[in-house]
Amino acid sequence: MRGLFALVTLFALSAPSAVRAGSSCIAFDTTWNLLAFGFNGKDYNAGTSDTWASGSAADITASGRPPFNGQATKCYLSEFNNAIYVLGADTSQPAAIYIYDASAKSWSTQTVTAGGFDPTSFEAILDHDTNFFYALSKGEVWALDMGDLKAAKSDAAVWSDQGAADITTTNYDPVMGIAQNHIYFFGVPNVAAGNCPIYVIHFAAWQPTPQAYGNFPDSHGQATSFFLDSGVQQEIAFIPDDGSHVYIVNVETNTTQTLGGPATVDAAATYFASTTALVQLASSGAVSWMPYSASDASANSAAKWSAVQNLAAVAPPSGGSSTGGSSAGSGSSTSGTGAKTSTKAGGGSPATGSGTPTGTGSGSNPSGTGASAASRVVVGSGTALGLVAVALALL
Ligand SMILES: *[C@@H]1O[C@H](CO)[C@@H](O)[C@H](O)[C@H]1NC(C)=O
């Protein structure tokens, strides 16, 4: 294994400034334009999903941007501020948070006091209501207040330790989703498939027992939340590393839709969702998406993945095919990039789970803004594996 990681390191160091899921990122702004950062040294606005099939994404590269040279860059949308927060995009300032004001199209750099927080090893979500980051790192929960920032403030933002996580974190590579001001953890050791332990942000407390959502595997993977135009996010897409399915977990009804997996099976891919699209950034730099409807499960079952062509036109993926076409959403399809695991996840038929929709929201929410959404994109974790696969593929 050590040899493999040495190889990974070598590969990572020698790679040209290509698009990689680990150093590039995708995010949406609040009018659901797809932004792509760190694509061959540039940033792009690919517009809304109705424009992705042809043409060229707009170059929005501007001064003050990070170098996008990290290994686990993470981008988050602060919906109230129409700002993208970029973490881990500058190895010379690993804790810095770069802020892209999507309205002003300008960058600034927020200094951060990391304290005991390791900015090179964490997963995090951005809570919509409070605009706090919450991270899990080395067994501890950490929080950082982003205020109403769409540009950096003069004093440092501070990571503060919220105490030990109330879940098994040994050998746990965190997978976190945000919805209803709660954090949902996937693939936690000693927690049954289909269940998530929950951290309740406004009470800074863990629910005593995991919540059951239906049918998804106990696996590492990636999670990202669907936004709403206003109001709390209620659904999280969970994509296990084997890419067999996309699971959409609804935290109102506590049910799960089981959809076909992405066309590109890639454990190192990252994801970001708008209100109606789930987008994948694969290790190759290929960006593809599937449409999603919060109200039409049968449309979701039939949804196909397609390339974001206007982005590929200006920032072609490395190592060949731009995934061109679309693929029907059937389980474990592939098209060959990056890390592809062979395990097959349990999932099966659509729309399992039970429970009746009722308002949930957990009766907390002192922070005022009422219903809201929150964003997250998960990077990291699978990245090393993905790079191994990429490195091996290139040898
Ligand atoms: C869904 O799960 C949450 C979190 O455990 C719980 O508070 C809520 O009552 C559940 N709702 C339904 C409809 O089961």
TrEMBL record:
<dbReference type="InterPro" id="IPR011044">
    <property type="entry name" value="Quino_amine_DH_bsu"/>
</dbReference>
<feature type="signal peptide">
    <location>
        <begin position="1"/>
        <end position="21"/>
    </location>
</feature>
<feature type="compositionally biased region" description="Gly residues">
    <location>
        <begin position="345"/>
        <end position="362"/>
    </location>
</feature>
<keyword id="KW-0732">Signal</keyword>
<feature type="compositionally biased region" description="Low complexity">
    <location>
        <begin position="363"/>
        <end position="373"/>
    </location>
</feature>
<feature type="compositionally biased region" description="Low complexity">
    <location>
        <begin position="329"/>
        <end position="344"/>
    </location>
</feature>
<feature type="region of interest" description="Disordered">
    <location>
        <begin position="316"/>
        <end position="373"/>
    </location>
</feature>
<protein>
    <submittedName>
        <fullName>Uncharacterized protein</fullName>
    </submittedName>
</protein>
